[in-house]
Structure formats: structure tokens, C-alpha cells
Amino acid sequence: MAPFSAWLPAHPNQDFDLAVKFVGRSASGLIDELAPIVQALILHGCQVMVQTGRLNGGTGHLVLRLRIASRPFYSMGHGCDVVVYLDQDPPEFWRFGLQPGSVLVWEPSEQLRLHPLLPDGIIAYSVPLRELNAQYSQETWGKGFVAMGVLAQLLGFSEEARRVCLKSLPAPRLFDSGYQFASRSLVKHDIYSLPLATRGDARVVLSPENAVKLGFAASHCESGTDCAGELERSPTQWIARHLAMADKMVSVLHSEQFPDVQAYRGPQGKVFALFRGDDASILASLNSCSNPRILVAADAVDALRLLVVGHRLIEANRAGVVGVVVEEALTARLESVWVGALAAARSGKKADAADGIDGAAEDGTATMRAEREGEDDAEVGFIAWGATQGVVRDALTLCRNLGMSVAALYPKQIVPLPVAQLEFFAGSVKRVVVVESGQTREHADRIEGACSFRLSVVMPDKGTTLTPMDLFMRENLGATDDNQSKGVQDE
After folding, report:
1. What are the backbone angles phi and psi of residue 158, rounded to the nearest 5°?
2. Which of 82, 355, 368, 369 has the fewest CB atoms within 10 Å, i.e. the most exposed one?
3. Is the pTM above the cut of 0.70?
4. What's the Rg (C-alpha) of the chain?
């Protein structure tokens, strides 16, 4: 899910994907009168999916779920970006799917004001729902309309969308009371303004866009050991300061030749972060450069680390230009990041002790060596770039738990292709499977053009993403004979 904090402040033309839950008995009024609200959201440029139910397998609080996004989608999704809590009894927050960066709209009781029970990293807005409802109604269901007005203001409803609600809802004054209260009294907060406890397992919330900005800023920060100390003492302060640095040095480029590619460029103009766009257009946009190096990030922290590494490659004259690709699967993701991993990324080091490849050609920096995990002489060896690494890691765990011998290679670089590392890995397993993130054989074709080993390909079905069970079943690790119909291509 994209962070709700992406709206705080709102960025025009930004993709978004929110999972919203209205929890409590007062949600019943909204459920009965949801059509105009959905119409207003559509006017606001949203795709909307609605689901009703109860928590705790049907015995708990009434729940109205909304998935609100800028693009079509096919399921309700997981997690929760916004909880609107309408009841008065103390909530059990763990039941709501709140995560660091989520937003809570509620009316805390006096007891909870004295003894706050909010999880770390939650953006909370206190709204006097009962008082606003009592101005126009004696029915408790009216609190749902008040809360919807608050949410509409936080989402930045257009005046046209607001008018649709005022004209069509059975309780327009309740909706407007919430909207006006939020406009008048709520100060929007971003996740990076939240205090963070200083402890060894502290985590921060990071979006890929901000990870990229931090990567550029960290590459040019001259504070040295003071910078590392600030990150350890106050991660949120470190993030805020470096984002401010990045806003002064990083430019966003759009190309008429490659309109889908969004590129972030630093002050020297030789290191880029490349968002969106298909693989072919991203590669073409940099292949005309002298001595290009194109790296693929697995997650937000990896994007930060690879940008630091990219600047070091430029400084060492090992590349003429470096591009760090952030795949579309990552661009809308909000990640809870361990501060230790952030510190390792800032220094260009790895946060874990994953194996390098013995015998692989050294390219000047240990951080660029492909990671390998799993057994030597494994039955199946998966190769995965970028965002697909997560599903492969989970698939390996599943297979190992069932006593199967599997391995994986996670290269970081696609230009130039790390042929020696790929050949060494292929020689250490009985069968090689390339895992693609999209509907084309981009990585597999590139490998076949440069390497000597045979391979199979797994790619997601149209409109879906791969799961660990897909890899388990499609590669005959489970009992199945219909590989061809499920997206496996054997060479």
C-alpha cells in the first residue's frame, strides 16, 4: 500500500492506493448510503472497491472497508492505511491491521488521553465525533457521516466531489460538520514528523521516492561521523535533514522520447534513479551513454544503497553513468525499515551476511557482488532481479521446510550483465529458473544471449503477481503436470 502520508501534503498526479476501514456500530449509516460517497470518490479520480463485514470472524466490530486507488485493482488488498474508529470502548489496535505510517481518525476517551495505547508510528487525528454529531442528530449512526467528512478533507476532495456528497447524502450537515472541523482544526502530519523511540530495534517508515532522495543526499553529505551519529541518535531528524538537502540538489527529468520513464538526477548528472517505464525504454535511455552501469533495486533500502554505490563507481572512474532502476512494483510501496539497515545502506554496505559468489569477477566493490542463498548442488536454482527477490526468498523458505534442495542468485546489475557470476551459479545447480516480474522475458532473453546454460522461465499470469506457491507448484516442486498452462516456459 502507498503511504497515507503521501497525501500530507498532497502531491498532484501521484499514484495512490489506500485501504480504509470504518470500524464501529456507527458505520451502519454509511453502509446504507454509500453510493454518493463512491460517486464523489470517482469524481475525485479514484477507483473504489467496497466490502462490509465484522472483525474477529464475524463476532466483533462492524467494519466498512474501502480500497481507494488511482489505478484499477483486482482485490481488497492487505494491511491498512486509514482506520476511522467510531466506537467509544478502548480499541484493540492489533485487530485493525495498522502499520507504521497508518492514519487513525478517532475520538479517544479521557482515560486513553491519560494512558495512550497507540502503536508506534501511527498518525492519529483526534475528532470530537459525538459533539459534532449532536449538533444535528441524536442518532449515533450520524458519527459515520461526520467521520466521512473529516476523511474527505484529509484526502483533499475537490469542490465538485464535496458538492456531490452534500447534495446526495441523507445527512449532508453531518458530513459538512466533519469537513469543516478538519479544515479548521486538524494540522496534517507527515510520518517523518513523528517521534521515534531510540532503541536498538527502532524502525522508520520509508517510501522508495524518499529512499532515492536520501541516497543522493547521503552520497554528498560531508558530515562524516557526525552524520552516522545523528542517524543512530535521531533517525527521523536525520531523514528530515537529508530530505531537505535532496530537495535542493535532486532534479526530476521527463523525456519526450521515453515519456513513461521518470528519472531523478543528482548534481553531477552521472547517477540516475529511474522510476516506472518498461525495461526496454529504461535501458534505451541510458545505453547511448559511455560505459553505462545499470543496477536494479530489490527494495527501498537497496535503492538508497545502490545510489551510494553508484556515486562511488563514478568517483573511481569505473562507470561513465550509473542508473538505479526502481521497478513499478516498488514505487507505491511503504516499507518499515530497521535503522541498522538504513545505516548500512548509507555507508554502501550490506546489512546482512549473504554469500558472495566464489570465483566471480571482482568489479571493485564488494557491495556489487551478487547474493547467493541456498544449498550447493541444489536441484533447482532461481535467478531473480529486483522486486522478485522477495517472493523467491519466501519460496526458498517454503521448499526448505519441506526438505527440498533449492538455491537462488540475486544479481544487482543488468548492464553489463554479470556473466561470470551467472555461469558460476548455473554450474552449481542442476536446473536454472529465471523469475520475471512482468509478462515479458526481459531477463531471460538477456541471459540467453550472453550465457551458455539452459534455463526455464516463470512469469506471473496477466493481472497477477507471483507468489511463493506459484514457484513451488510451477517448477514441479509440488505435484503438477500443467506447467505450460500456468506460465512456465522450458527451453
Report:
1. -70, 160
2. 355
3. no
4. 25
- Decide: 437 and 387 in contact? Cβ < 8 Å: yes
Portion of the chain with pLDDT greater than 70, in percent: 79
Strands 98-106 and 123-126: parallel
Q: 310-353, pLDDT tens digit by residue?
A: 999 999 998 999 999 998 878 767 677 888 889 999 987 653 33
DSSP 162-223: HHHHHHHSS-HHHHHHHHHHHHHHPPP--GGGS----STT-EEEE-HHHHHHHHHHHHH---
| CA distances in angstroms from 329 to 275, 297, 319, 415, 465, listed in the order given | 10, 11, 27, 20, 9
Domains of the chain: 4-192 (3.40.920.10), 203-347 (no CATH), 368-490 (3.40.50.920)
Helices (H) and strands (E) in the chain, counts: 19, 20
β-pairing, 80-85 vs 98-106, is: parallel
What lies within 8 Å, CB to CB, of 110 at 6+ separation is none
Task: Dig out the grid coordinates for 272 from the structure.
Answer: 540516475
DSSP-derived secondary structure for 470-482 = HHHHHTTSSS-S-
Mean pLDDT throughout 418-438? 92
336 neighbors 287 (Cβ within 8 angstroms): no
DSSP codes, 238-302: HHHHHHHHHHHH-EEEE-SSSTT-EEEE-TTSSEEEEESS-HHHHHHHHHTSSSEEEEE-SSHHH
Cα–Cα distance, 217 to 211 (Å, whole number):
10
